[in-house]
Amino acid sequence: MSKNRSNSGPSQRQLRAGELVRHALVDILAREELRDPDLAGVMVTVSEVRCSPDLKHAMAFIAPLGGGDARKTADALNRCAGFLRGRLGAQIEMKFTPALKFEPDESFEEASKIDALLKRPDVARDLERARTDDDAESTSSDD
Predict the structure, then answer these.
(1) CB–CB of 55/89 below 8 Å?
(2) I need a surface site. Which of 30, 36, 45, 109 has the fewest CB within 10 A?
């Protein structure tokens, strides 16, 4: 009996493996001195790791701490992916060590854009108006 998982998110197994890989990558990146000149002096945060259903591939979303060019950092980490995979295999206990791919995490930029949008005076005014309308409706329906 097979499950149709086309619309559902990652399985519990994928989530656990992703967190295991994320924690190990954070530890490796903190301890190892990588030779790539684009990574010299750059501290990297790994915000999320998504594993494929067969756990043979892992996509790590990264951002340089303190700002910087996330695409350049991701490209540099992709050049070091083989080395990092070897270190990862020694640190985690999984049947297969996943192949690593690094992508810049754009969620921080997106959150900043949304925050700036919500702080605009015209949007704040509309949000306040909607909130008072909702409050008025809830008190009138309680009567």
Answers:
(1) no
(2) 30
**Could you give phi then psi for residue 64, rounded to 5 degrees?**
-75, 135
105 — phi, psi (to 5°)? -90, 115
Q: And the tokens for 59?
A: 């996509």
- What span, in angstroms and rounded, lies between the C-alpha atoms of 75 and 96? 24
Q: Check: CB of residue 57 under 8 Å from CB of residue 49.
A: no
Of the candidates 92, 91, 60, 89, the one whose C-alpha atom is nearest the C-alpha of residue 76 is 60
Q: Which residues in 24-58 are b (16+ Cβ under 10 Å) and which e?
A: bbeebbeeeebeeebbeebebebeebbbeeebeeb
Mean pLDDT by 10-residue block, N- to C-terminus, for the chain (143 residues)? Answer: 64 94 94 88 92 96 87 94 94 93 84 79 77 68 55
Q: Which two tokens stand for residue 37?
A: 């000149």
**Which residue, 103, 92, 99, is CA-closest to 47?**
103
